[in-house]
């Protein structure tokens, strides 16, 4: 599953808006459904549901990584502002 996470993480970027990232995730979800249709997997099948769960879990994980990255950038920028600010 880490290869799949890496693939999705490479498709999105912290510089993308949430809407842009959601569009990428939509393509991932659509590709999964097409693969399931190709394999004649019924959406109610436990295997299909597990695959869908993995996709959603991976998206959640990638969003968490992006959130942590953006938070770290915000903290670093705030620290730089404090260091460069002249003392009162």
Outline the structure in words.
The protein is an all-alpha fold. It has helices at residues 2-11, 18-38, 46-84. α1 crosses α3 (46-84) and α2 packs antiparallel against α3. The longest helix is centred in the C-terminal third of the chain and has 39 residues, at 46-84. It is elongated. The model has no long low-confidence stretch (mean pLDDT 86).
What topology does this entry show?
Blueprint: H1 2-11, H2 18-38, H3 46-84
* Unreliable segments of 5+ consecutive residues: none
Distance between the termini: 53 Å
Averaged pLDDT: 86
- Helical residue percent? over 70%
Largest sheet: none
Defining traits:
elongated; single chain; 88 residues; mainly alpha
What does this entry show, briefly?
With about 90 residues, the chain is an all-alpha fold.
């Amino acid at each position: 599953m880490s290869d799949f996470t890496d693939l999705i993480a490479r498709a999105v970027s912290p510089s993308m808006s949430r809407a842009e990232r959601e569009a990428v995730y939509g393509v991932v979800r659509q590709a999964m459904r097409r693969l399931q249709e190709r394999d004649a997997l019924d959406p109610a099948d436990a295997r299909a549901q597990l695959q869908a769960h993995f996709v959603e879990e991976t998206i959640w994980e990638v969003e968490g990584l992006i959130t942590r990255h953006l938070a770290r950038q915000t903290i670093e920028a705030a620290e730089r502002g404090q260091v460069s600010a002249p003392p009162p």
